[in-house]
Amino acid sequence: MRIIAKKPIRQFWESFPDAEGPLKAWCADAKHADWKTPNDIKKHYASASIVANNRVVFNIGGNKYRLICHVRYDLGILFVRFVGTHEEYDKVDAASV
Questions:
Q1: CA 7, CA 20: separation in Å to the nearest integer?
Q2: What pLDDT does 56 receive?
Q3: How many alpha carbons fall within 13 Å on the CB side of residue 14?
Q4: Where are the beta strands (DSSP E) in 5-64?
Q5: CA pair distance 47, 90, nearest whole angstrom
Q6: I want to staple 49 with a disulfide (CB 3.0 to 4.6 A). Which of 5, 57, 61, 97 is the partner?
Q7: For the residues 39-59, what does the mean pLDDT come to?
């Protein structure tokens, strides 16, 4: 998969250094993935939440942080829409962010 907008991920781990390792691991996994359906994601990330509008919420760092991506399965692209703490995540609508 191609990841669009990695900059917010890097900026986040600069503020939360303990998120750097888990986010880098997720990026490496996603880069080498070939997800064609939401079930493909769930096979690798069982705790991921599939929400409306082709959004997927990934739990990062033992569920300490959240990452929301818009997935274009047909093009093999992940658009990073949000990365933040649980408190920040509670303030957004994952389906429309």
A1: 13
A2: 98
A3: 6
A4: 49-51, 55-60
A5: 17
A6: 57
A7: 96
Task: Look at residues 37, 79, 49 and name the one whose alpha carbon lies nearest to residue 58.
Answer: 49
- Torsion angles phi and psi, residue 26, rounded to 5: -60, -45
Give the pLDDT of residue 74.
96
**Average pLDDT over the chain, rounded to an integer:** 96
HSE (side-chain half, CA atoms, 13 Å) at 25: 12
Residue 4 φ then ψ, to 5°: -100, 135
Buried b / exposed e over 57-79, threshold 16 CB at 10 Å, is: bbbbbeeebbbbbbbebeeeebe
pTM, two decimal places: 0.94
Contact 16, 22 (CB under 8 A): no
What is the rounded CA–CA span in Å between residue 56 and residue 59?
Answer: 10
pLDDT over 90, % of the chain: 97
Q: Is 17 helix (H, G, I), strand (E, B) or coil?
A: helix
